[in-house]
Structure formats: structure tokens, C-alpha cells
Design a protein that fits this description.
single chain; 135 residues; 36% strand; MuF_C; alpha+beta; Phage MuF C-terminal domain-containing protein
Length: 135
Amino acid sequence: MTGAPPKKEVVLILGDTPQYLVEHANFPELPIVITGSVIEKACFDHGIPTSLLKRLPSILDNPKGLFKSASFHVKGAAVVLTIEVHQSSPIIIPVHPNKQMGRGKFYNVVASVYAKEGPNPEVKWTREGLLLWKK
């Protein structure tokens, strides 16, 4: 084996996967988690306040809408559009379903948390047919 050995990833359980992800995006009923590296990236690269990250479970439980991911990198991925904003841009949370982490445990995983800059993503994604559910 070359290079450094794999680093253990801190996994923080946020709770049960919200029902709208199960019903409208076909996510399995697994715990939803976020990793330490995603939290670090959200804070230091995307400027998301830690006060917002501490409220992630309730933010995920009360979204504005749910969209299919336009990315083809992860099968079945979805994007949660929140009611939260950062610097006038809506906060979005991409989520990956049924991902194995650690020794055989599977979770639904928050892949990122960031403010979506540019034109209103809700209008654009709805027009593109990506809307799965709206509150």
C-alpha cells in the first residue's frame, strides 16, 4: 500500500432521515449523518456559521423544498432547499442515500451545506423538472 493509511472519519448522527426524503426521494429509513470533514468545509470554505450547523436537524426537518440532484456522480442523490439564507443566498443541503461508512453501517449522508449563489435555484430547478416535493 502506498501513501498514508485511511483516516478515520468522525460521523455525527443528526437523527432519523426526514420522512419527505423517504417518501419523495426514495431514501431508505436510515439515520442521517454528517461527517466532520463536511462540517469543516461548510464552516471554513463556505462560511456557514456554526450556529446554523448546530441547528441542522431542525433545518432538515423543516425544508422549503426537495429536488433531484442534477449531478450524476451519486445515484439517487437529492438536494434539500432550506428556508435559511447566508449573505442573501439560499442554503442548500445535498444528501446522498444509503452510503456505507465504517464497518458495514449504512447511512443517508449530508454531502455539503452551502449558500447557492446566483439566480434563484428554486425557479431554475423547478423549470428543469428537478422538483420532487415542495412544502
